[in-house]
Amino acid sequence: MSNRYRKNLLVCNGSSCQQASDADLVAFINFKLKEYNLEDGIKVVQSVCSNKCSIGPNIIVYPDNVEYSKVTKSDIDDIIIEHLLNERIVERLVFDKENGNGVAPIKQYRIALRNCGFIDPEEIKDYIEKDGYDALAKCLSKYTPEEVTQEVIKSGLRGRGGGGFPTGLKWEITSKSVSDQKYVVCNADEGDPGAFMDRSVLEGDPHSVLEAMAICGYCIGANKGIIYVRAEYPLAVKRLKIAINQAKEYGLLGKNIFGTGFEFTITIKYGAGAFICGEETALIHSMEGFLGEPTLKPPFPSVSGYLKKPTNVNNVETFANIPAIINKGADWYASIGTEKSKGTKVFALAGKINNVGLIEVPMGITLREIIYDIGGGIVNGKKFKAVQTGGPSGGCLTEKHLDLPIDFDSLTAAGSMMGSGGMIVMDEDDCMVSMARFYLEFIVEESCGKCAPCRIGNKRLHEMLTKLCDGKGTMEDLDLLRNLSVVVKDTSLCGLGQTSPNPILSTMANFYDEYYAHVAEHRCPSGQCKSFMLYYISEENCIGCLVCARKCPVGAISGEKKKLHIINQELCTKCGVCMEKCKFHAVHLN
Amino acid sequence: MMTICESNVAKIEAICKEYNCDKGELINVLHQTQNTFGYLPEDVQEIIAENLQTSLAQVYGVVSFYSFFTMIPKGKHPVNICKGTACYVRGAEKIIDEFKTLLDINIGETTADEKFSLSSLRCIGACGLAPVVLIGDKVYGRVTLDSVKEILDEYQ
Amino acid sequence: MWSLYGKMQVSCSSLKLILYYNFMDTISIKIDNKNFQVEKGTTILDAAKSVGINIPTLCYMHLHDLNTTHNPTGCRICVVEVVGRKNLALACATECLPGMEIKNQTIRVLNSRKTILELILSDHPTDCLICAKNGDCDLQSMAQQMGIREIHYKGEQSHYIKDTSPAIKRDMDKCIGCRRCLTMCNDVQTVGALSAINRGFMSVVAPAFQMNLEDSVCTYCGQCVAVCPTAALTEVDHTNLVIRALADPTKTVVVQTAPAVRVALGEEFGYEPGTIVTGKMTAALKDMGFDYVFDTDFAADLTIMEEATELLDRLTRYINGDTTVKLPLLTSCCPACVNFFEHQFPEMKDIPSTARSPQQMFGAIAKTYFADKLGIKRENMVVVSIMPCLAKKYECSRDEFKTNGNPDVDYVLSTRELSRLIKQASIDFDSLIPLEFDHPMGESSGAGVIFGTTGGVIEAAVRTAYETFTKQKLDKVDFKQLRGMDWIRESTIDFNGTPIKIGIAHGLGNARKLLQEIREGKSQYHAIEIMACPGGCIGGGGQPLHHGDSNILLARQKALYAADKAKVIRKSHENPSIQKLYTEFLERPMSEKAHQLLHTHYFDRSTHVEITKD
Question: Where does the record place the 4Fe-4S ferredoxin-type domain (chain A) (predicted)?
Fold first, then answer.
């Protein structure tokens, strides 16, 4: 936090808040501050994601630590006059911690997100004030590359992109590959639907990633770094570019860093909308200008990667942890978390949960703590059913897993995976069969198509699930579904195919009754699958107003004025418009 | 035979030069070219292939693989509907259907008057506002079936 | 007692040590509970093969001597269980490690293979009975081997527009995504006509914009067809057209057979590679009702007459200081090479000899000189070629080789098609009594025979050019320095004091290297020969499949040189029928008539885009 100003206004400038805002709040506030002659004493900081996306835009006033939510242009005058000039809190805008909609700060521990929301990401000085680039300086001046690598190994940090491979070990392997040129690659092709932790780090604290990449370069003997970032993240790209330029200006990137002779430069490459490019070999092919198709490992990128040179690929969140580990020591880091999963993990909490947003929690926290203590429980007080972790490659965890301490290994053992950290919460209204179908649809769209089990197998899995949802499934289909899921998992080329049947296998394991109901009882227990629905109009309530008939998009409702209307079930597409539009509650759902 | 005018060729050549005509930079070149032209028609791809000394089949292969690239010109107001999980759980499918019905086009198509084009996209990370619709750069959060028409009316 | 035990232990461990030293280059592995010693550094697939265990593969292709291993690891059929690994391992791409325990027969492995195969079949048409590759399809044999009786996983099938070019048919509904064609087109031949496009279920191999091959940079070399495991890529079938022509009493059907066909056709009938079956082939063609069975080698001699004259003309002018002369002269017999430089090196389109290929010279002479002799109209003559090549099908359809819309060569059958035709005609190839070619276009020199191998055309040209240039008799006609299988070869031939520098390349990837060197001025040659297919025409896209085994190619090559040696006449200009043709009809090489009938010109086909003013 900058101490040069009397007060700091942290305006959340994460994509969510920007998108929720009715104007460019930062520019507007600056304009207003000038009006009140306050621009010298008050600094407006564009910060990132204070994790209360559902109640944005959010503004935090420091050092008072007062959080205002759902701020619009018209609220700015109040904040300035009341709070900044008269030190009176504008109660009506205050974020209500008890009943609020943001994720609660309790039980959280910020390492990767340590600076997000607390510094101006477009201002390198802010980062430096927060001990930024200290870690790099320390590494370059005091330690040998081997010593730094050992420190990372000792910290127990594991890759945050999904695989959970020990980061230090990866560095060590790459450092041992002999080559005239090596590369450090930052994988910022965050693609899991519902996961946006990497974006938040890039938007909120880009320098931590740059610093970590340089440290990695020092360890493995690389002088070139490349960030592969999704083109769908324009703000992250913009801030990365600013950060790279500032770091160059300050001599923190480029030649002879800190006068040690160490050289490191960073460039940016863009993804182009292919989920598979999160897989490291596919990512490398994409960076080389090819289709993002994975290749078999070995050879691992650490031996033969970008342009066939040894390449160390780490994900954004992994890198964001590095400077903290170097600054505070491996022992400190290793003291957090569980035996085999050290440190913290950032999760993106979404779905049917009260508090949507990013959280960073120590490994080993239970699902119950996340969902109820931090997430504030299920929307509308409904019953918790499951949480999908690990995105489309993951599986679902149910009530019986609520007290499971979450780390890499426990999630895998429970049939899911850590993945990049998406957590989608589902309630009693969600049908697990159609949930599995949704994920398979995603996989079918995103499979690269190179290997047969993934290309055709996932297509067939999706078709079978659709058949189940359409009420046409047979018991034999359930057996085939399971067999095919196992084979696809067992034989696919890359991580995508090897995990794509997880949503099916884990829902079949935990909610077999729902599958059974779809096939044997011809019903969807949660009432979500349209084909089992039957809309009908009841005699006693229908007054024959014609509204439903007029609104029906397929003309399935017939009837004359003031007479009972009838739905033609052959034509009905079960869109539910009639039920929504009827003011007399005459349309019912079976 | 396709035709392309000189000044467009010059624009493409300039982009390729910016990346040292390195075929490894194909994706960056395609991004910038699409920014310039709005889409990547066949003639444009041919000029890129020539400049980067790579095969046209390779360029097309890349364009067809990545969903970000398009060979169809987008409408004046491109409508993008997020299909991330959070949006799905909160009813994005119904929203997509409503847009399809009102615009009378399918995903990936452009209306006859070239005003709107419809596409779905992967999670944009605004899960707190689900379901989310983007029109151009403007984001509409918590979209309901009723608000779809209102949103489109803003552009009429 | 204890001390003895101790000694035994010592000797045991030293024995182990000795064994270890003896087998430094081998490692021990276990396959299905049996111990094996296999070579270090090999894949599970190769290791298993070396001990007699065949693991099924589909996409995998090992072109030993093209230095090309194609293992895109896409079909996943060769999965095996490796004890201690979570997922199944790919035999074709997993290296054996000491002590590795491999299971090839478990239920898990067999079920996975069968399921994957069912998946592939679920997205594949089931018209096997009437498919061009019926009986010769890797997928079909695999289904048979695995005993597939039912496809459990049914669903949407992918459909693509069928594409028929003059030489190659693409039916991508039958593509199984093995990507072998991509390796041939992009890595070996560097043509770049094909790419993987789209993704997921719609992922397929196609030319740019899914245009027809005809509009792409495809050279029709046919190497993709030669490696396609199914009928996704096949040659355009001319057999029915030929049968129809044979059945038409108003038509005189003349057939020519290319040099490389006679040393490969036998393979389709169970003969060893390199068996020369010229006589049997002639007899079969006669049996099928061809009116005249001639030899393309005759036209090859004719080609040399024109090409060598052109070379000498350019050389002499060059030596006399004419700076406008284009050197090197590039041989122009290979139609795929012509397509290649028309698309990729258009600025060099004036270096190839203007002499037409032997096939086209044959057609032009047959439909003029020979038709006149027979006293029939060209419309009533049908010229059929038997070629090792698919590009020849395209070549004969080029407009330059037509007179009033009537082509000089009507139909081209590949070696494979000829074998099918022979089988279709119920001819017992084994019992055929060899016959001679007909006259006059059946007579050839040894120089004409070696046209079928890399280095052969240029050697034939040198034999004639030497004598014409030096006005001296050439005693040693075997130019061993021009022979061999090295991809790019160069040699200097002493033309009695004048060193003539010659370059040779086969395989379009190597041709590209050679042409690039010339374009950049790095190499100075007087003459170069390039052939599109590895090994030259003996490895052509229409030949019996050699699966990249250079032993087969070498056997075919050896047979051609043997046939050359067996000839009395070894130089083209000494062929009496050729001499007669010039006296009776063409006057002399490069005469006006020769120009009209035997020479051609080339086009710039490099771009599809026309750049207009603003």
Answer: 533-562, 563-590
Name the residue among A444, A459, A487 with its Cβ closest to that of C115. A487
Note the pTM of the prediction, 2 decimals: 0.88
Ranges in chain C, pLDDT < 70: 1-24, 64-66
The top-level CATH class assigned to B77-153 is alpha beta
Instruction: For residue A37, name the pLDDT band (cuts at 50, 70, 90).
Output: confident
Kindly state the DSSP code that residue A119 receives in the 8-state scheme. Answer: S
- Annotated active-site residue C379? The verdict is no
Q: Is B55 on the interface with A (CB under 8 A)?
A: no
Q: So what's the pLDDT on residue C401?
A: 97
- More confidently predicted of A92 and B95: B95
Q: 3-state SS string over A419-476?
A: CCCEEEEEECCCCHHHHHHHHHHHHHHHCCCCCHHHHHHHHHHHHHHHHHHCCCCCHH
**Is 70 exceeded by the pLDDT of residue A17?**
no
Tell me what pLDDT residue A3 has. Answer: 45
According to DSSP, the residues that pair with A351 across neighbouring strands are A425
Residues 6+ apart with CB under 8 A from B132: A19, B81, B82, B87, B124, B126, B139, B140, B141, B143
Which of C267, C395, C417, C459 is an active site residue?
Answer: C395
DSSP secondary structure of C575-586: -HHHHHHIIIII
**Using the beta-carbon criterion (under 8 Å), do B65 and C192 form an inter-chain contact?**
no
Pairing of strands C252-257, C292-295: parallel
Active site residue C436: no
Mean pLDDT over residues A537-549, rounded? 90
Cα angle: A264, vertex A266, A269; to 5 degrees: 155
Between β-strands C61-63 and B116-121, what pairing exists: parallel, antiparallel or unpaired?
A: unpaired
Q: Is B130 on the interface with C (CB under 8 A)?
A: no
Q: What is the pLDDT of residues B3-15, one digit of tens each?
A: 889 999 999 999 9
| C214 given a catalytic annotation | no
Residue A111's nearest CA partner among A318, A418, A409, A394 is A318
- Binding residue per annotation — B16? no
Alpha carbon A298 to chain centroid, angstroms? 29
pLDDT at A53: 61
| Predicted local confidence at residue A88, as pLDDT | 77
Chain C residues with beta carbon closer than 8 angstroms to that of A276: 199
Torsion of CA A209, A215, A219, A224, to 10 degrees: 70
- Residue C611 is predicted with a pLDDT of 87
Helix (H, G, I), strand (E, B) or coil at C273: coil
- The CA distance from C200 to the nearest CA of chain B, in Å, is 9
Task: Please say if C400 is a catalytic residue.
Answer: yes
Q: How far is B116 from chain C (nearest CA, A)?
A: 25
By percentage, how much of chain A surpasses pLDDT 70? 93
Q: Where are the domains of chain B?
A: 6-65, 77-153
Q: pLDDT at residue A50 above 70? A: no
Please tell me what DSSP assigns to residue C588. S
Of B149 and A40, the structure prediction assigns the larger pLDDT to B149
Chain B window 31-50: which residues touch C at a Cβ cutoff of 8 Å? 42-43, 45-47, 50
Determine the pLDDT at residue A54: 64
Torsion over CA: C114, C120, C126, C127 (sign): negative
Let me know: does C28 contact C100? Beta carbons within 8 Å.
no
Active-site option among C78, C96, C218, C333 = C333
Chain A residues whose beta carbon lies within 8 Å of the beta carbon of residue B66: 271-274, 292
Joined tokens for residue A70: 């759902």
**The pLDDT value given to residue C21:** 45
Q: Which residue is it, tokens 């972790």? A: A389
CB contact under 8 A, A53 and B126: yes
Domains and CATH numbers, chain A: 7-93 (3.40.30.10), 124-334 (3.40.50.11540), 344-427 (3.10.20.600), 432-520 (1.20.1440.230), 533-589 (3.30.70.20)
Q: Which domains does chain C have, with CATH numbers?
A: 43-128 (3.10.20.740), 158-235 (3.30.70.20), 239-598 (3.40.50.1780)
